[in-house]
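Bump. Still looking for Transcriptional regulator structure tokens.
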Amino acid sequence: MAFLFAFCGAAGLNPCPADKNTMTEERKMQELDHKAIGLRIRKQRTFLNMSRDQLARKIGITPTFLADIELGTKGFSLKSLNYFCSTLKMSSDAILYGPREYMGTKYSAILELLERCPKDKGKYAEEILTLFLLSHDPVEEVPRAQK
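Sorry for the wait, here they are.
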């Protein structure tokens, strides 16, 4: 592909025959909200009871740079995104675009945890969640049929 761009560019040809308006609209749709990304990172860091210094050390960046990321004044590399995902237990979509809606209700945090849960532990997570929900919203016991 690089060869195609180099060859076509040298020959004065446009290898991507899209007009400038379409390209601008596509780029606008792909723009990221760095302040929102930084806020999501900070929220998850504090949720995990992690200091800025601890997260910065795990990601391999300085605490000052992490503060800039959390404030939305600086961006970060794909390599750092991968480290953020691993360390904060979040998907890249959740970091970049925020919570997704599930059946009209936001369950992103729970879904994120369940998606990252290993298969062998998924059943336990389901049982724990079920027990928790039942204990906080008891259902009337259905009388058992007598033998």
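The chain has two domains: 28-98, 102-137.

Edit: fixed formatting.
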